[in-house]
Amino acid sequence: MQRDWVLYRDLDRVLITKDEISQAVAKLAAQLQKDYEGKDLMCVCILKGAVLFFTDLLRELDLPLTIDFMAISSYGSSTKTSGVVRILKDLDHDVLGKDVLVIEDIVDSGLTLSYIKQTLTQRGAKSVRLATLLDKPERRKNDLKVDYACFIIPNEFVVGYGLDYAEKYRNLPEVGVLDPKIYT
Ligand code: IMP
Ligand code: MG
């Protein structure tokens, strides 16, 4: 049983269980299946946090899509946003004329995704929509519109299912609130 894992000892509590995640992923996939039928879909995974969400979601999509990856710096190893957005790894493919779906782990201030959306739009994507596993709307610093969000969560620092603290906890199969004693 994974709940015995040592990683769970650093959590205050589990926020979203494995079952809740897989149900939400299936529901989102069904919606995307409808919305992207007949379109030239390119799914962009924002590394590294979105990796687990991205691969689980892709497995449920019966669409002739392509994939690509982008890495952005925003956090370092602290739990507060730096406000500085920088491309660490750019896409390998051109987005011109593509219907791009950007897949992210969490939207917090919204700075990262608004920067990505603006960049891909300027490069000539036909459409750019945003899908996120988690949304923390209380923390938003701009008017970013998130097109698809699986879970709205409170303003607490979470880890697991791809999300990290100082690069750890990404392999937890659930999303949990990190015990503040770990970072204070
Ligand atoms: P934003 O630009 O402030 O929206 O930041 C988004 C990025 O910050 C995400 O892709 C995460 O990497 C990171 N982040 C924000 N909140 C959390 C959290 O609660 N846990 C782990 N990473 C987070
Ligand atoms: Mg991220």
Could you characterize what this model shows?
The chain is of the alpha/beta class and 184 residues long. The protein has a single domain, classed as Rossmann fold (3-Layer(aba) Sandwich), CATH 3.40.50.2020. Helix content is 21%, strand content 29%. Strands 4-3-2-5-6-7 form a 6-stranded mixed β-sheet, sandwiched between helices. A 3-stranded antiparallel β-sheet has the order 1-9-8. Strand 5 (99-107), helix 3 and strand 6 (127-135) form a beta-alpha-beta unit. 30% of the residues are buried. The model has no long low-confidence stretch (mean pLDDT 94). The chain binds inosinic acid and magnesium ion (MG). Residues 49, 74-75, 81, 104-112, 157-159, 163 line the site of inosinic acid.
CATH topology: Rossmann fold
Tally of DSSP helical segments: 3
Mean pLDDT: 94
Query: How many domains comprise the coordinates?
Result: 1
Task: Give every kind of bound small molecule, once each.
Answer: inosinic acid, magnesium ion
Amount of beta strand:
25-35%
Strand order of the largest sheet: 4-3-2-5-6-7
Strands, total number: 9
User: How far apart, in Å, are the first and last alpha carbons?
Assistant: 29 Å
Supply the helix-strand structural class: alpha/beta
What tags apply to this protein structure?
184 residues, binds inosinic acid, single chain, 21% helix, Rossmann fold
In short:
This protein is an alpha/beta fold and 184 residues long. The protein has helices at 18-35, 51-58, 111-122; strands at residues 11-16, 41-47, 66-73, 86-89, 99-107, 127-135, 148-152, 158-159, 175-178. It binds inosinic acid and magnesium ion (MG).
